[in-house]
Amino acid sequence: MLKKVGAVAAFAALASVLVATTAWGSAKAPRHLSAVAAKTIKCGKTVTIGIAYPATGPAASLGAPQFDWASYAKKRWNHGHKLKIKLVVGDTQLGNSPGLAVPVAHSFASKSKMLAVVGPAGSQEVQDSIAVYRKAGLVAVSGSATRIFLTRSKPGNKRETPKGYFFRTVPNDGQQGDRVAAWISGKLKFKHVYIIDDEEAYSQGLADQVAADLKKVGVTAGRNHISQQQQDFSSVITAIPSNTQIVYIPWQLPGQAQTFYNQLRAAGKHAKIMGSDGTDAPGTFQPNGNGYVSGFPVDFTSPVLKSFMKAHNHQPETFGIPSYTATLVAATAIQKACKAGHGKTTRTAVRKQVQKVKLSAAAGLLGFGIQFLNSNKSTFQGPGDMGGAANFAVYQITGSGTYKRVG
Amino acid sequence: MHLLLFNIVDQIRSLGWGGAFELLRNGIVLGSLYSLIALGYTMIYGILKLLNFAHGDVYMVGAFLGFGVLTAFGGALNPGIGLVPLILIMFAVAMLGSGVLGVAIERFAYRPLRNAPRIAPLIAALGVSFFLENSAQLMTNGFQYNYDAFQLGGKNGNFGPLFDPVFTVAGNPVTVVQVLVVGSAVTLMAALIFVVSRTRLGKAMRATAFDQEAASMMGIDTDRVISSTFFIASVLAGAAGVMYGLYIGTTFYFMGFLAGLKAFTAAVVGGIGSIVGAMVAGVLVGLVESFAIGYVGGQWSDIVVFGILILFMILRPTGLFGAQAIQKV
Questions:
Q1: Where are the alpha helices (DSSP H) in B211-274?
Q2: ipTM for the predicted complex
Q3: What angle do the packed helices B176-198 and B200-210 form, to 10 degrees?
Q4: Nearest to A239 among B254, B258, B293 (CB)
Q5: What CATH topology corresponds to A174-295+393-405?
Q6: Which of A317, A353, A401, B36 would be A286's cystine partner, CB 3.0–4.6 Å?
C-alpha cells in the first residue's frame, strides 16, 4: 500500500516539476508569444479582457468580490458603450502552492483576441507571471497587488515588473503602511503595539512596513504570524502582552479578522484592533467601538455603489472596488486604442493607452481620480502606481458597526 | 538559531505560569477536536486500509449543518428556543447529517472500488474531498459564516453563558464552551470505545478489520459493518464540526483541509488503526501546536507539528500505539 502511495506521490511530484518547468508552468515565455504581441486585432463589436483572480482555493473569498465588481464594471460599461467588453476568467488559486498564476498568464497570452488583463490579484502572482505578460505584450492592471517593489526599485535591485506592463488601481503597501503607522503613533499616540501577519506576501509586506515606520518613531511592535487557514487564535492571543494597546492585523480575510476579534475579547484582552484594506468589509469585520481599518476613501453615498449593494445582498464588497476601476481602465484604454487604430489595434497600442487613462473620482469609485505615474514619486511610488490624491483613508468602526472616516 | 532560542526563552519567561496554563488549556481543547477527527481516519483505515482524505470535509459539512440549525432557529443573537435544546438539536442534526453523508460517500464512491487496486479508492477519496470543498465554496460564495457563538444566549450583544468561566487557574478562566468541547469529546470517545469493545457491532468491526474475507465467511455482513464504521466516524466528525463552530465561532468551506491534515497527523502519530492512539495523539498534536504558537511563533507551528510527524515516521513508523503487522509468508 505504502509503496503505491509513494508511487502516486512521486508521480504527482514529477508532474508538478514538469508543469513547473515546461512552458505552461514557467515564467519563461515561449517565442511565439512575441508575435502575438504585435498582431493587429480587429476590434469588432466586442473586445476581450482577461480577469486573473482566485476563483477557488483558500483565497476564493477575496476573489469573489473582485469578480463581482469586475462583472459589474462590464455590465455598466456595456450598457453605455458601443464597443462591448467580454471578460475571460482565469482562476489563479491564490494561496495554494503552487498557484496557477503562470498557467493562467500563458492561457491569456495565447488567446489572440485578448487585449488586456485585470489582475493578477496577489503580488507574488504578479512577480511570477509578469514575464509571460511582457512577452505577449499584454498589460496587467491589478486591483490588489500592493507590494512596493513591483513598481519601485530598491537599492541594488531593479523594480520587479517592466515599466509600462504593470499598473495598479490600488495604493501600494508603502502608502498604506505610512498611513497606518502615522495613525497609530501620531494620532492615537499608542506605544504598545502588536502586529500579526497572515504569512501572505501582501500581509507580510504591510506588517513589515508598519513595523519599520513605527520603529523610526521609537515604537517597537511585538510580532506574530498566523496562516490564512487558521481560525483558532487562542494561543496567538495568549502571546499578546496584556499591556498591548492596539493589535494591527493586515489580513486578507475579513471573516477571519472578526473571529480573531471575538476570541481576543473572549480571552479578556481589551486592546483596540486595526485592520487593512483586506479587512475593510462593513458587515463582516465589526469590532464595534474598538477598531479601525485603513481602506479606500470610497464614497458610500455613490448611486453606483448603492446599486451594486442592492444586487449583492447589501454587501459593499469593498475589497473588490479597485477591480471595478481596473476593468474600467482596461476598457477605456482598449476603446481609445481601437479608435486610434480605426477599428483595429494591437496589445502594444492598448498598453500604451493604459498609461494615458484618466478617470474621475466619481467614475473610478475609489474616492480619488485615476491617473498613472510615469516616473518615481515620493519614497514609494513609481511608474504604474496612481499619482494625484491616491491614498488610503482611516475608518473608525463605531459602536453600531458603521465605518466612519476619521483620517 | 541562537536568536530563536533566546526569543523562546524570553517568551517563556514573559508569559509565565499563567501563560503556560493558557497554552495548556488551549492545546487540550484544540486537541480534543483533532482527536475526534483523527478517530474517523483511524477507524476507516483500520477497517478498509483506506486513507479517507474526504474526512476533514465531512467535519466541515458538520459545522455548516450546525450553523444551518442555528440560523433556522433565528441565529445566535435571537434564538427562538432555549440555549440547551438549541445546542442539542445542532449536535443531533450535524451528527446525523454527517453520518448519512459518510455512509453515502462509502456507498457511492468507495464501495464500487472495493476490489480495485488500493490506489483507486485513495484517488476517489481525494476526488470526494475536492468535490465537497468546492461544492461548499460554490454554495457559500467562499465566505466565512459566523456562528456568533460568543453572543449565543447573551443579551445586548454581550458574551453569552458559553463564555462564562466555570473555574479559574492562576487567574485564567476555563469557560463553559471549553468544558463542553472537552467533555463532549471525552464522552464520545468513551462511547466509541464501549461500542468497539463491548457490542456485537464492535466485535464485527474488529473481525472485519482483522480479515474481511474471513469475517464475511463467518456470516458477518461486512458491507453493513463498513457502512456502520463510516457512519460512526462521520458522526464524530460532525460533532467536532459543531464544537468547532461553538468554540471558534466560525465556519468556512476550507476549514476541513488543515484540520484534516492535523488530525491525519494525529492518527499516524498515534499509530494508524489504533483508537486509543488517535485520541492521545490528537491531544498531543493540539498541545504541540498551542505551545509552538505561544512560545516559538505562529509561523513555526506547522513546521513543528509536521516535523514531529516526520520524526515519528523515521523513529517509530508504527506510531505511539500501533502494532507491528505480522506478515504471513
A1: 212-217, 222-248, 255-270
A2: 0.83
A3: 70
A4: B293
A5: Rossmann fold (3.40.50)
A6: A401
* CATH, domain range A34-171+308-371: 3.40.50.2300
Contact A119, A92 (CB under 8 A): yes
Rounded to the nearest 5 degrees, what angle is found at the Cα of A154, between the Cα atoms of A148 and A374? 65
Task: Choose, out of B129, B140, B143, the residue to mutate when testing the contact with A (most A CBs < 10 Å).
Answer: B143
Please compute the mean of the pLDDT values over residues B85-96 and round it to a whole number.
97
DSSP codes, A36-67: HHH--EE--SEEEEEEEE-SSSTTHHHHHHHH
Q: Where are the domains of chain A?
A: 34-171+308-371, 174-295+393-405
Mean pLDDT (chain A, rounded): 87
pLDDT score of B238 more than 70: yes
Prior bond to A120 cis, omega within 30? yes
Chain A, 237 to 256: residues with Cβ < 8 Å from chain B are: 238-239, 241, 253, 255-256
Q: At what angle do helices B275-291 and B176-198 cross, to 10 degrees?
A: 160
- Say how far apart CA A160 and CA B248 lie, in whole Å: 40
Beta bridge pairs of residue B169: B172
Predicted local distance difference test score (pLDDT) of residue B327: 55
Helix (H, G, I), strand (E, B) or coil at A154: strand
Question: Which residue in B30, B119, B294 is closest to A238 by CB distance?
Answer: B294
